[in-house]
Structures are given as C-alpha cells and as structure tokens.
Amino acid sequence: MDPSKRNAAALHQRVDDICDNLTNHFASIFAAASRPTDKTLAEVAQNELRIREESAALVKDAEDLITLIRELKELWLFGSLNTLTDPGDRQAQEEKALKIAAQIEGLMKKATSSDSVADEAVKNEAKGDEMQS
C-alpha cells in the first residue's frame, strides 16, 4: 500500500468509494431485473448483458473490499496502521515510558544496595556464629 494512503482520511475515502460502488451495482442489478418482461428478444438480451456486467462489477467491488480488509489487517499486525493516535499522544507515551524506566532503574539500584546490605548482615551473622562455636 502506498504510504501516502495510510492515513485515516485516505482509508475512510477508500472504504466509502467501495461501499458506494457496491450499492450502485446492487441497485443497477435490481433496476434491470425489475423491468417489464414484454420486450423484444434484443431488449431481453441487452438487459441480461447489463445484469451480467453489473454482477461482475459487484463481485469485483467485493474483492476490492476483501483486499482492503486484508491490507488493514497487515498494517495493524505490523504496526504501520497509525490512524488512532496523534503525535501529541505518541510523545506523551514516550514520556511515560521514560518515567517508568527511571522508576525501574531506581528500584533496581535500591534492590541491589539492600541485597548487598543483607548479604553483609548474613556474613556478619555467620561470622558471629563461628566465633561463638
């Protein structure tokens, strides 16, 4: 998919175009099928051809819709579909991630320093037990 067509407006426009085409072809099929039957053989053949053409166009538009759905799934799966967030949201998420990373770093430092204090206390206790024995 063209990168310039990955924004929300282009995707909405594409969906709207496909849906409009589907409804137009569907309506054309019913309009052709509901015509009076007292026609000449040539008019009936022409009407049949019109129904076949509209049916083929309807199938093509349905295939286009399936292709669009598949492309949207691929974009969503691989992370390229970025239509729901704006740049301000992304920046706020990055700031939150940095704050969380800093908090985790602080906790890790505290945990390692308290582990070393606890290790020394255990060593001192063991030395004290050896001296008493």
Automatic annotation (TrEMBL):
Residues 109-133 are annotated as: Disordered. GO terms for molecular function: transcription coregulator activity. Keywords: Nucleus, Transcription, Transcription regulation. Coiled coil: none annotated. Pfam families: Med22. Residues 120-133 have a biased composition (Basic and acidic residues). InterPro entries: Med22. It comes from the Eukaryota. Gene3D superfamilies: Mediator of RNA polymerase II transcription subunit 22. One of its GO terms (biological process) is regulation of transcription by RNA polymerase II. Belongs to the Mediator complex subunit 22 family. This is Mediator of RNA polymerase II transcription subunit 22. It comes from Sporormia fimetaria CBS 119925.
